[in-house]
Design a protein that fits this description.
Elements (H helix, E strand, L loop, with lengths): L8 H46 L6 H9 L7 E11 L7 E14 L16 E13 L1
Antiparallel strand pairs: 1-2, 2-3
Amino acid sequence: MRKVRERGAAAIETAMVLPSLVLLIAGGAYFGRTATVRHTLTDIVSAATRASTMSGGTIKPDDEVKKHVGAKCPGGVTVAATDTFIVAANPSAGIEGIRSLTVKATCSLGSADSQGLFGFVTQGTVEAVSTMAYPAWK
């Protein structure tokens, strides 16, 4: 039989542990979502970089990234593409040189007015960078 002094102890223990448990679960869900968005964004940026280099520049990587990201970045996405020469021309091989295309995308996970994780984490960003070298044909 329980003593009179132990009545309500389980309720008090639950009230002490429950907020920490809820915060731990919500934080895990938030970081899981961030990891999923990072993985997806990396795949999209890599595919856009490859498509642009294989098309000879007719496909713009920023358009490709924005087209495939969609609602995965609720705060929007910014894309910067840099195309540079890394090796000089080799006329005997018919190559003007080797170029390098670097595409960097930054995805905002929330807008300024979103509540995020109970108002504690309202915004976050995820970045993905992809670089690919390709020949600059004549």
